[in-house]
Amino acid sequence: MTILEIQHINKSFGKKVILKDINLQIESSSIIALVGANGAGKTTLINIILNLIPQTSGQIKFLTNENWKQITGVMMQDNIVLHRITVKEIISLTRSYFDKPLSYEELLNISGLNNHQNNLMTGLSGGQRRRLAFALALAGNPEILFLDEPTVGMDSNARNEFWQEIDRLKKSGKTIFVTSHYLEELENIADRFLILQNSTIAFDGTIKQLRSREGQSLVEFDSELNQIDFENLANVISINLIGHHFQIITNDVNQLITELTPYLKAIDNLQVKQSTLDTLLLNYKENNHE
Ligand SMILES: Nc1ncnc2c1ncn2[C@@H]1O[C@H](COP(=O)(O)OP(=O)(O)OP(=O)(O)O)[C@@H](O)[C@H]1O
């Protein structure tokens, strides 16, 4: 079922065009990952959807409820910290805005701040503020959640629990629209990937579709050789070199390994895996001359 329609959205700041004719249909019970370089316009698009800033033209339509504030939950990129307000007070206050909020206890459990109920918001760590922001986003038991860089500042346990909770929410019928630069986290969880590039949605599909378009496999190894030594091999789609660590995207692992045979003495730690969202996105930028 379609829950949200984004129709012909354009946005400019002054003369700078940020979004150009964005059209999307967002289906319920799915996790949609919006990815793109710094400054691509991800937060701008979310802000427009949520009516926080005006679009230059185009329309946003929430289809299941005209009172869209009752069905949306939002976790913005920056934590909002109110002075002289405790965890307990902000959870109670936020619940009071909604017709059918989750219970106080549920929200406190989601925030993981059971032992900090009477602490001031200003006394929370960055990771604790993030988890509180997540609980507040869920206060109204929303149908659709917007999460802008949700896991920044969370430790690995908190991240793990966070994504498990997101998966549970999806399975319970929620729609989750998320941006993150932690691509390996998104890769495991998102059903649909939107790549925002050059002001438009340059790719819209699954990770499987992205792999078949941009390269299926990733061959990694360490070598003192130069990038130029490998660049002209027939089965190389792209090469990324960090220090002495090579990452090569290919559609034909067997042929590439055959081509690498003459170099094997100068190669260590050879590994073959499925191409990752991270490496595909690097390649994507290069292909599109960004
Ligand atoms: N209020 C504003 N006035 C002028 N320019 C703005 C304003 N807000 C954002 N921009 C510009 O719009 C572009 C897109 O910004 P946006 O924050 O949407 O990018 P983003 O994809 O979310 O980036 P990041 O991954 O770094 O968070 C940037 O070039 C930014 O400088």
From TrEMBL:
Q: Which SUPFAM superfamilies match?
A: P-loop containing nucleoside triphosphate hydrolases
Which InterPro entries does this UniProt record tie to the protein? Answer: AAA+_ATPase, ABC_transporter-like_ATP-bd, ABC_transporter-like_CS, ABC_transporter_ATP-binding, P-loop_NTPase
Q: Where is the ABC transporter domain?
A: 4-223
UniProt keywords, alphabetically: ATP-binding, Nucleotide-binding, Transport
Pfam short name (any one): ABC_tran
GO function terms (MF aspect): ATP binding; ATP hydrolysis activity
Looking up PANTHER family in the UniProt record yields:
ABC TRANSPORTER ATP-BINDING PROTEIN
**Name of protein:** ABC transporter, ATP-binding protein
Lineage, opening ranks: Bacteria, Bacillati, Bacillota, Bacilli, Lactobacillales
